[in-house]
Amino acid sequence: MDRLQIFKKASLCRNFDEVVFEKLQDKTIAYPTYLSVGQEFISATIASVVQDMNVEPDIFIQHRGHATYLSFGGSVEGLVKELLGREDGCTNGMGGSASIHSKEKNIYGHDGLMGNQVPIAVGSCYASKKPTIVFMGDSSAEEDYVFSSIGWAATKNLPILFVVEDNNLSILTEKSVRRNWSMVEVSRGFGMNACNMKDSPNYISNVFKISKVFKKPLLFNINTIRKYWHAGAGIDDPNVFDRYGDEMKELGQQAVDIHEETKIYVRGVWEEQLNQQ
Predict the structure, then answer these.
(1) pTM for this entry
(2) Alpha helices in the chain (DSSP H)
(3) Fewer Cβ in 10 A, N or C end of the chain?
(4) Residues 48-74: pLDDT tens digits?
């Protein structure tokens, strides 16, 4: 595992969404936008590990999908254009923040109904038998069609990885209020292997190494945090743990340099595209 490679992907995601946060505040973007800040290391780590495996899976992302799109190689320019509502955006200016795609990178976006990327991903995997990863939030995971889709994947032994990005929140309602069961328990009930973990790059990559990813269906419930509001530009808790800052401190000056270089690059792309408006 190359921690700096993972950090570089996470840095692209963090710096991108920090600019989006600013554009929401100054009303350059004036519609519901779902930021990945705080959750970057899930997609950054999985994308890096999959890259090292020389596998090109189909990727189905959730509505909070900026980090997944960017980590798996989606175009920065294409996403900027999409968020600005331009026809040359990654989803032709019609997807906004919640429904972003890249056919070139096999990335397929959420299309409006919470969690419905899961049955779509399972159906696609069943038809193609290609390695597949589908991301969902802990609230989307509660939809009934998600359960039946996981059950079908288990029954047919599909090469699919279900990733629950578990920030413990459905807008502002915590899991303890919403349910008394876990996705790991549900998945194991279908006879699938499933595990609960934190969003540490070391932890995620180590679990990948010992799991039969793409050999049979698996579910990873990855605990993380959402730094900003469910949608828009606001902070729920300024004192929440920040994996990004923790990793940068641990990795030292090389990570600081990556952060600064990526910030310059991302802001340059935004400035260039805004000048074309």
Answers:
(1) 0.96
(2) 3-25, 40-52, 66-71, 76-83, 117-128, 144-156, 175-178, 183-189, 201-210, 243-251, 253-275
(3) C
(4) 999 999 999 999 999 999 999 999 999
How far apart, in Å, are the Cα atoms of 98 and each of 82, 119, 121, 260?
10, 17, 17, 27
Q: Which residue has the tokens 């946060």?
A: 21
- Which helix or strand (DSSP H or E) is residue 161 part of? strand 160-166
- Check if the beta carbon of residue 58 is closer than 8 Å to that of residue 106: yes
Where do we find the tokens 């994947």? 153
The domains located in the chain, with CATH, are: 3-275 (3.40.50.970)
Alpha-carbon distance of 23 to 227, in angstroms, equals 17
- Of 270, 267, 260, the C-alpha closest to 29 is 270
* Integer Cα distance of 171 and 246 in angstroms: 25
Amino acid letter at 148? S
Question: Bridge-partner residues for 166, per DSSP?
Answer: 223
| 158 neighbors 126 (Cβ within 8 angstroms) | yes
Mean pLDDT of 271-275: 95
CA distance 96 to 35: 12
